[in-house]
């Protein structure tokens, strides 16, 4: 949908949808055109309240009304919800009209709010479904920070659930943390999440200082052997910065890991020679993306060789972070990591007899690049 469509047309479309599909079970509406017209919000929310057989609802960044959210919460067969809560709903209003049973069949809960993470924690706490496996929280207002204590309360709400050990995915998106010297994400904040034994995805996109070490990351790898995506950041670094050796436990204990991200120290001098030499013994062949935060690299060629030994099929290295003030950091290292990724890593792979077949995305990118170059040439 585009912003040029009059709100009345959205309203008419939704009325026709109600008339033509009264048994609708899956609703996916993408109207990413802020600021959102009240007519669109009202029309969509009213339409939602007429569908009794919904199994999944995805309205993305478009807010729904409190009435529509409460209606969805009581549907007996709803399994997936991905909505933005209304800015007007508060913890107090939620408690004033409590539910006897909320989301009895839910598997996937993805909620966004302007800034109130505690409200989302409260909803997680009251969700009754024993099948809940995926939880995601997003802060829409990236300029309004929240205390780190609110993040820990969110974790506690999840960990207190009877089915906590069956949670597979946990995501916190675009959350700026209120800056104080105490608001640093440390080993003690990460450790309680080890109780989520079935995790396959953990994304903590917190804009704050991270202060993790090699020891806690080794414990992380052991705690989640089935992890596929682990993204701790982006964020600036504290006093302690994990070394390249912190990657080895993930190669040893996480055979399905495909995406790994945390800021590290890419100085190979911190890695004992015997560990560097044994990296190939732990080769893990599933990792495709490594996010290194604001790490600087001293010796691109040697770092690439180490990574090629450890993760032979590594294809992409992402550099750069967002600090607690929302500013980009690590840009100075981007050229070095680009050299590692595009020059030295493919060369190291070829030396080891590894040939990369291009992905569909890479083929598309090459086609678009060739088309663009051809167009520029013809215009000249």
Automatic annotation (TrEMBL):
What is the recorded name of this protein? Uncharacterized protein
Judging by the UniProt lineage, the source's domain of life is Eukaryota
Q: What is the lineage of its organism?
A: Eukaryota, Fungi, Dikarya, Basidiomycota, Agaricomycotina
């Amino acid at each position: 949908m585009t912003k040029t469509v009059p709100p009345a047309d959205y309203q008419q479309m939704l009325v026709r949808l109600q008339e033509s599909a009264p048994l609708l079970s899956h609703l996916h509406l993408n109207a990413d055109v802020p600021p959102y017209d009240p007519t669109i919000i009202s029309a969509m929310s009213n339409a939602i309240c007429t569908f009794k057989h919904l199994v999944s609802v995805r309205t993305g960044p478009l807010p729904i009304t409190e009435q529509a959210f409460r209606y969805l919460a009581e549907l007996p067969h709803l399994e997936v919800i991905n909505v933005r809560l209304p800015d007007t709903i508060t913890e107090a209003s939620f408690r004033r009209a409590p539910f006897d049973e909320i989301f009895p069949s839910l598997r996937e809960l993805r909620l966004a709010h302007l800034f109130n993470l505690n409200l989302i924690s409260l909803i997680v706490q009251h969700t009754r479904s024993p099948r809940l496996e995926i939880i995601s929280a997003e802060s829409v207002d990236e300029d309004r920070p929240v205390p780190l204590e609110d993040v820990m309360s969110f974790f506690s709400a999840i960990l207190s659930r009877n089915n906590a050990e069956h949670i597979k995915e946990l995501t916190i998106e675009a959350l700026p943390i209120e800056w104080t010297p105490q608001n640093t994400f440390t080993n003690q904040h990460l450790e309680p999440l080890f109780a989520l034994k079935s995790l396959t995805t953990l994304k903590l996109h917190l804009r704050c200082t991270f202060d993790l070490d090699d020891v806690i990351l080794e414990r992380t790898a052991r705690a989640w052997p089935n992890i596929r995506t682990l993204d701790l950041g982006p964020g600036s670094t504290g006093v302690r910065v994990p070394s390249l050796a912190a990657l080895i436990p993930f190669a040893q204990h996480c055979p399905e890991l495909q995406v790994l991200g945390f800021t590290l120290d890419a100085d190979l001098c911190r890695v004992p020679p015997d560990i560097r030499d044994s990296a190939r013994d732990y080769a893990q062949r599933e990792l495709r993306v490594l996010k290194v935060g604001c790490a600087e690299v001293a010796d691109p060629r040697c770092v690439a060789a180490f990574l090629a030994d450890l993760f032979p099929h590594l294809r992409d290295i992402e550099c750069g972070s967002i600090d607690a003030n929302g500013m980009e950091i690590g840009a100075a290292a981007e050229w070095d990591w680009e050299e590692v990724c595009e020059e030295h890593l493919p060369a190291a792979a070829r030396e080891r007899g590894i040939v990369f077949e291009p992905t569909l995305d890479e083929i598309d990118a090459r086609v678009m690049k060739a088309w663009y170059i051809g167009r520029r040439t013809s215009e000249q």
